[in-house]
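INFO worker-7 received task bundle
INFO bundle size: 2
INFO processing item 0
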Amino acid sequence: VHVNHFPLKVNGQKKINHYDVEITTPWKRENRRSDEPLFRKGFRKLCKENPNVFPIDLFPAFDGIKSVYTTRKLGFNGDNWTKKVEIEEELSRIVVLSFKVHLVRSSIDLAGAINTFIAGQTLNAYSEVQILNIVLSQVAREKCVTIGRNYFPESSIEGRSVDLPGGKSVWFGFFQSVNIGWKPMLNVDVANKPAVKGGNMISYMEEVLATPGRRGDPPSYPNFRDQGGKYWDSRRHANTLERDLKGLKVRYIRPDKQKREWRCNKVMESARNLKFEHEGKKITVEAYFKNAYKFKLEFPLLPCLHLGSPQKNFYIPAE
């Protein structure tokens, strides 16, 4: 890195309009930051389907949750405008999002507010800096994995990730943020983040529980697919695997092809031995899948994962 601060020139002739966006979803919980990728996808579709409200050359800046900034007023009359869009989320389910847009502030003078702050006539310029950060991060947020103000291009791009032992990798990206001192500056720096490699659960278990090689020898990987998973040993393996998986999101596909995604709480007994109460009777997970889905588990000796709410008995076989 030769330089990580760049002068930022704010056009004094451009005024900003701030719109509040109220997004209504099918679920009962409040909207949260993890919904941002879905909301961005919905907002892109909203703009594309309504060019009379969002002209093609407008380029609105959306913060991903509830604010939109433009240099021209949107093309609707009245106090607010509401429209619904249908979006296919990652798990292939169709979600209907309703966007209600209304103007909060118009003709915001970013350059004037920043110059006033630099001259010492105001205590801060927090809201103006926030607007600049939202505007300047639009492309990165659309094309990168975003964590705070760190942006990581897709790991499939050469040199953007390095594989590590134990099913892990490190991603390389960049950080950017607007700073105002004696003049506006854009700080851009390198960033890195450890990550879990996506993939099938049994292969991931074999990676995590591999025995490191000695004196340059390759690691020794357990074979959990052999004979229904007979080489899984709860006493040796369960605690190590649970420490690794706890809190991670696990995506699975049921035998009826329904997709779900929940966080992992605990590594349980094998599907053949783990019992829970179903319709007033104790039943094993293996028997439940056979009865409920007409599905015979291929690896009944591998553990189940306790997913979702810790208060519920939601057990999914590793396969």
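INFO item 0 finished
INFO processing item 1
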Amino acid sequence: MLPRRSVTTIRTSSTASIGSKITGNILMIGERLRQAFHNNKPAIVRDRRQLLRQYTQCFTGREAVDWMVTNRDIIDRGLAVKLLRILQRNNVLHHVSDQSYLFKDDNALYRFRLDDCTFPMSREKEPYIKGEQLYARLTSQLTKNTILKVHTESGTVYEKSFYGSELVQWVVKHGLAASRAQAIGLGKELVECDIIRHVTTGHHFKDERVLYQFHPNIAHLKVMDLFDLDERPRSLNQDSPMSLRRHSEVSPRHSPIRTPNSIDIALGPLTLEPTSYSGDENKNIRKSSPGSSDSSSPLPPRVRKISTGSRSMSPVRTRGISSDEEYMVKNTIKITGDSVGFGFVVRGEGPSYVHTVDPAGPAAAAGLKAKQYITAVNSVDVVHKKHQELAHIILKNPYYITLDVVDHNPLPKTEEEDED
């Protein structure tokens, strides 16, 4: 039996910036909501009359909140208002008078900016909106003769896949592009924004019999993701610890994983004091299984312990981190991110280490643990990288990374130390 694969997990490199991808995901969620409002029976978006004036293609704040609570399992009307305000801040919707009227759960009228052509379209934003429209039409149950089919390539079965030439033809036929050249350009932009990808990441977009799939995260985007996306930094602060999933305030989905001290107190450089052990001492080294930790083990002599708020790390020699001669348990962890990120925080001045892990995030599911040192990202040595540099490297691959990590397994006490 052939292995079945609905998605490919290896990510091709993307030229889209971190900020544009975050904004792009917000726009995709907004476009999905706009389509849902239009397709609702009865339609929420329709022409209305208020105060002797006629307004086209609009909806009331109360109706929008009603729909969110009923159809998106939003347990609180106030929560729905906050979600819709995020879309308002990102120019997805606005008050019909176009004044700075904050979205409210009332009878005020609002419009989607795409409906009245006031959306500030740009080359960076357009692929995300068209990508969502394309995905919605191709996956709709009402769509006949969809190009999303099961294909087999090199002995592997790829579900919901399509050929580049088929996509070009479909896009032109359904009016998303005026010519094949425009359709090819759109396909390239979708690949660059990581909305579609070659099944083995071996090709950019081509108008040929080359197989592609939509990125798996697109199917899982939901309105509640707006909180996490809105909290994520659009750029990285060089002076602060790097968080691969930002939690500046309590998210409705989960509680913050960072302690107060981890936000306000920066970790100073690791003090790497010289240590030496004789061959006889090395015979008594205890080794643990990968991923395990022994909190009761004492520290090696002459190693200073540095406090990091609620957690502490024992500084180790950079040379020892990458050497087989030291007391390290090495492991390789593959993490597939979600629409929010990977879910862990890194700190350190080289070597850098995992400071905290979101228990509900992809990193925790993959087996990453706090206090593990990161030695390589996608086979690239990062032992000497500070946490700012390390975060930049990781965030260049926001959907899939392979981390080489080590657990520092401290030395047992000597008999002389026990007597003391």
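INFO item 1 finished
INFO post-check item 1: The two ends are 65 Å apart (CA to CA).
INFO post-check item 1: The chain is about 30% helix and 20% strand.
INFO worker-7 idle
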